[in-house]
Every structure is written in C-alpha cells, then in structure tokens.
C-alpha cells in the first residue's frame, strides 16, 4: 500500500512533497478530523541506518509524545505500518522557516526579534526544565505559523539528559548539529553539557535574527574556533544594534561553559524583558565581560588582511575578547565540519555539516 492510501485510511488526504532525504520524506496532508493541513514525516525503516533506528528514532518519538508547548510544533499522531514505515503527523509551518524568512526579508528589527526570540527561549526553558535537550537548534528548524510565531521543530538529535548519583547532569560525547551553530566544546570533541550547548546555538540564532548574517565564518573551522575561544563577536555597524542586544548575544556566545548564560538568565535579561530597558556599563562589566570598567565592551575592529572574512561584508564592531587557553581541535571533527553546504544568507556564508557522528537523522525539515 502506498503512502497516499495509508494516510487516506487514517483520515488524511496527502498533498505536496515538502522535503526528502535518503530514508525519510515530509509530505503535506489535509486532516479530515482536524479540518486543516498538517505535515507528515514518513520514515522507511528498511532504508534507515541501524544507529538511527536503535538510538535516535526511539528518542525522537518518546520526546515528541511528551512535549506540549505553544512554541513547539505539535505532534498529532504517530503510527507505524506492518511494512516498516513510521508516520509522524505534525503541525505545519505554513509560513516556512526562519532562515528563508530572513533570506527574503533581511535582518529583523529588534522588537520583532525580541518577540520571536522570547518564544524560542520559552520553548527551550520548557524543554530544559524537563531535562530534554534539542542539540540541533538552527534557523532551518524554527518554523513560522500563519501569524509568524516561532514553532521549534526537528527533534531528531534530542535526548533526555541523564543524572548521576549526586543528581548532576551527565556529559554528552556525540557530535550533533551544524558546525555553524555548534559550540566550541562540541567542535573540539570535548564531553559537553548538552543544555549549555543549546545556549550557544541560541546565541548564533539571535545574531542571525538581528544581523542577517552568520556570526562566524565556518569555512575554516580552526580559525573560527580560535576566534570563538578569544570571545570575539563582530557586529555590523550598519545595523545600529542596542547595547542590551549585543550584550545578550555576547554572553550566550561565551566560550567558557561555566560563564555562559543559563536559559533562566536569558529570559530575565533586560533586552528580553520589554519593560526593563537601559543597560548600564556597570551591568555589562559585572560579570567581567569587559576587561576595563571604564571602557565599553565593544570597540571598532582593527583592520588588516588577517581580519578579512567571507562573513564580514560590512564594517563591524567587535566585542572585547577574553583570553582563552589553546585547545587542540580534533582532526576527525575538522573533517566532519569541512563536509559543508553553502546555503547563502544575504550573500553571506551559512554552511552546515552534512555528516556527523553518528549518522544524521533524515535531512528533512517539518
């Protein structure tokens, strides 16, 4: 029985193809019960790799079944047929994803970015409070509903965090996600705190929202890592970002995992809170983000051939760096990250890894 016939028996009229990978595809469909269109991810067990079937798919199904948040794509139904196909019926992002939105319309104004980022951060807090981590946060996985509200999707790399006997979260060792959004500790192959990894990705997403470009050029992973570990964040001067916005991004893109913001600190940050405006230099310096209390944390970037980058097409300001110890980048991670695809974000580079360890779930976005 083909997919259309299977879905018809379950009350869905199959529509167009939304995406397709090597062992999964996503179709639109009309639900006769719900009376609106949905997205259906169809996974073929016969074509899927063993590690995906044994580890990632069961995790995704378990987590999708337990999540219920207004800013997370709803899962309406999950069923499987005797011939080994799994059907996941989900909410449809009718306005596409955030990456396409920004590529079409350019960077968001801070008020619009604040609203969308608050929705995303609320969804991440909900997940983290349940000890669920996403581990693949990126603009392609942020869908937009009819009113352009954020809907977090694609939990193919998500997992439930484990705790040791003392109640502390255990570290993860699996490389997940896209190099452009991955935290330095993940790219280096260091066992990492998965919740803290999600925060770095949030920082990259907010940067893209308000700048319309990537914060780092991932065409050279070693160079990117060096810049990240020096805690350098360059902002386009043409965007005229507020100090509060730059401060939040700077604190999320913190290479020291012990100093990177937690999700509660993000939600309570003055930029995210619409009524708590006006960030003083003292507040910025309180956590030691600036080495001199008498200077602002962002100064004009030095010029020179060493500073040229494909992702820096405009004059930028640079957040004051902090000294970070050199850590050897694992060669196998470099090879993984080099397998990249240019997506193009406002004429700037936006690459993502196509291969990870272990093999990625379906290359489709719902």
Automatic annotation (TrEMBL):
Single GO BP term: intracellular signal transduction
Co-factor requirement: Mg(2+)
Residues holding ATP: 41
Enzyme Commission number(s): 2.7.11.1
Compositionally skewed regions (Basic and acidic residues) per UniProt: 304-331
Residue spans of biased composition, Polar residues class: 337-348
Keywords: ATP-binding, Cytoplasm, Developmental protein, Differentiation, Kinase, Magnesium, Metal-binding, Nucleotide-binding, Phosphoprotein, Serine/threonine-protein kinase, Spermatogenesis, Transferase, Ubl conjugation
Top enzyme class: transferase
GO cellular component, one term: motile cilium
Compartments where located: Cytoplasmic vesicle, Secretory vesicle, Acrosome
InterPro entries in alphabetical order: Kinase-like_dom_sf, Prot_kinase_dom, Protein_kinase_ATP_BS, Ser/Thr_kinase_AS
Keyword Nucleotide-binding (UniProt): yes
Keyword match Acyltransferase: no
Classification via Gene3D superfamilies: Transferase(Phosphotransferase) domain 1
Segments of this protein annotated with the region Disordered: 283-366
Protein kinase domain ranges (all copies): 12-272
Reaction equations catalysed: L-threonyl-[protein] + ATP = O-phospho-L-threonyl-[protein] + ADP + H(+); L-seryl-[protein] + ATP = O-phospho-L-seryl-[protein] + ADP + H(+)
Single GO MF descriptor: protein-containing complex binding
Family: Belongs to the protein kinase superfamily. CAMK Ser/Thr protein kinase family.
Name of the protein in question: non-specific serine/threonine protein kinase
Organism, scientific name: Peromyscus maniculatus bairdii
Taxon lineage: Eukaryota, Metazoa, Chordata, Craniata, Vertebrata
């Amino acid at each position: 029985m083909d997919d259309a016939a299977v879905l018809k028996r379950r009350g869905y009229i199959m529509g167009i193809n939304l995406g397709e990978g090597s062992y999964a595809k996503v179709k639109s469909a009309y639900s006769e019960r719900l009376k609106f269109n949905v997205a259906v991810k169809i996974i073929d067990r016969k074509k899927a790799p063993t590690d995906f079937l044994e580890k990632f798919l069961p995790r995704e199904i378990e987590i999708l079944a337990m999540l219920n948040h207004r800013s997370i794509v709803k899962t309406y139904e999950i069923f499987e047929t005797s011939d080994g196909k799994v059907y996941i019926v989900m909410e449809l992002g009718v306005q596409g994803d955030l990456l396409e939105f920004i590529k079409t319309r350019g960077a968001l104004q801070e008020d619009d970015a604040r609203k969308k980022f608050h929705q995303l951060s609320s969804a991440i807090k909900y997940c983290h409070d349940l000890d669920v981590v996403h581990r693949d946060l990126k603009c392609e996985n942020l869908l937009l509903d009819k009113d352009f509200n954020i809907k977090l999707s694609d939990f193919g790399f998500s997992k439930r965090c484990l705790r040791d006997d003392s109640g502390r979260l255990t570290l993860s060792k699996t490389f997940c996600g896209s190099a452009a959004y991955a935290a330095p500790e993940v790219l280096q192959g260091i066992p990492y705190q998965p919740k803290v990894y999600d925060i770095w990705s949030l920082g990259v997403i907010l940067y893209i929202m308000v700048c319309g470009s990537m914060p780092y050029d991932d065409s050279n992973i070693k160079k990117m890592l060096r810049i990240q570990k020096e805690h350098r964040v360059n902002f386009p001067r043409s965007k005229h970002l507020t100090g509060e916005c730059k401060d939040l991004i700077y604190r999320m893109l913190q290479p020291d995992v012990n100093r990177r913001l937690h999700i509660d600190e993000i939600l309570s940050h003055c930029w995210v809170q619409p009524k708590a405006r006006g960030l003083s230099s003292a507040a910025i310096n309180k956590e030691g983000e600036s080495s001199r209390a008498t200077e602002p944390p962002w100064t004009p970037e030095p010029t020179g051939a060493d500073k040229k980058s494909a992702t820096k097409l405009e004059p930028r300001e640079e957040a004051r760096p902090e000294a970070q110890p050199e850590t050897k980048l694992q060669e196998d991670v470099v090879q993984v990250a080099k397998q990249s695809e240019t997506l193009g974000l406002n004429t700037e580079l936006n690459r993502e890894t196509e291969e990870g360890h272990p093999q990625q779930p379906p290359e489709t976005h719902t």
